[in-house]
Design brief:
Radius of gyration: 20 Å
Distance between the termini: 26 Å
Largest sheet: 13 strands, mixed
Shape: globular
Order of helices and strands: EEEEEEEEEEEEEEEHEE
Helix content: under 10%
Pfam families: DUF4249
Number of domains: 2
Oligomer: single chain
């Protein structure tokens, strides 16, 4: 299934260059896969925390549910003099939602509420995820990044190659007070990344073309999300999108593997300081991120009536 993109401003704002890591896995080596992208809706009371863990032993086999012993999220504001120390935050102990699902959520049986209130977090707060298995310990750190609302979604009447594509025109306004990065979830497992280098502080408008194999008609609703991301997650998703070619979701394992932000800390004595950890070859796949999300939907109409 192919997608086509026409930028009304400039194509280069959707492109970044990163090295891709080619990994040859031994036939029997397993690798942990973590889907830890938490999308924050600041109108809700709690963060929708859900960490999905699986493992892969081959690029040609389906992922299987991973058995882990614990998953914990630490969060707070970095101390200016010691950034590895988080202040004013808390801890969220996770538990598997149902045995064998690989889905980990805040533990409802804990002595205190393990959910994280949206009102307790601020842009720039740091979140740390630790995962333990019988033999390994993994760690990831990320910073909460805010987004901006989608200004408008409109259906256009332009087409590309086959003449049967459906055009959706997306617009949003960059705040202009910093270098910002965005991830667009365009429904149907399709994603795009963009940075504000060429539209900082301006309204950015682009067209996205959905191929006719989706059979979009007057009953079709397209859901589009705009997520604020940091540069590291932007680069990661850019590589994933390039590798997947529009045919895979961001957490399926492509032939060349992209290294995320989840490192193996097995054997590290200091449980509070991880900055001195070198990223070994025995890392987990996937990514952990806390990002604000704005969503909007558009109902597709018959272009012949427009």
């Amino acid at each position: 299934m192919k997608r086509y993109l026409l930028l009304l401003l400039t194509l280069t704002s959707f492109i970044s260059c990163e090295d891709v890591i080619d990994i040859e896995l031994p036939e029997n080596e397993t690798r942990l896969i973590v889907n830890g992208i938490i999308r924050v809706d600041e109108t809700q009371e709690y963060l929708p925390i859900e960490i999905v863990v699986s493992e892969s032993s081959s690029f040609f086999e389906e992922n299987t549910i991973a058995s882990i012993n614990s998953a914990i999220i630490y969060y707070g504001t970095p101390n200016p003099d010691a950034p590895e120390i988080l202040e004013g935050g808390g801890v969220s102990n996770l538990v598997e939602l149902e045995p064998g699902t690989g889905i980990w959520v805040p533990d409802p049986t804990f002595d205190s509420d393990q959910r994280i209130r949206v009102s307790s977090i601020n842009e720039g707060d740091v979140f740390q995820l630790t995962i333990e298995t019988d033999e390994e310990r993994y760690f990831a750190t990320t910073t909460y990044v805010k987004s901006v609302p989608i200004d408008s979604l409109e259906q256009g009447d332009e087409t590309l190659f086959s003449g049967d594509e459906t055009e959706v025109i997306v617009a949003f306004t960059d705040p202009g007070d910093s270098d910002d990065f965005y991830l667009l979830d365009l429904d149907f497992g399709e994603f795009l990344v963009t940075e504000d280098e060429f539209y900082q502080g301006q309204t950015f408008v682009f067209s996205y073309f959905y191929d006719n194999d989706l059979e979009l008609d007057t009953s079709s609703v397209v859901d589009i999300s705009l997520l604020g991301v940091d540069e590291s997650f932007y680069n990661y998703m850019n590589q994933i999108i390039v590798q997947s070619g529009g045919d895979q979701g961001p957490f399926q394992t492509p032939a060349a593997t992209v290294r995320g932000n989840i490192i193996n800390i097995t054997g590290i004595d200091n449980d509070e300081v991880f900055d001195n950890v070198e990223r070994s070859d025995n890392f987990a796949l996937g990514y952990f991120a806390i990002v604000e999300e704005y969503k909007d939907s558009i109902v597709i109409t018959d272009n012949e009536t427009n």
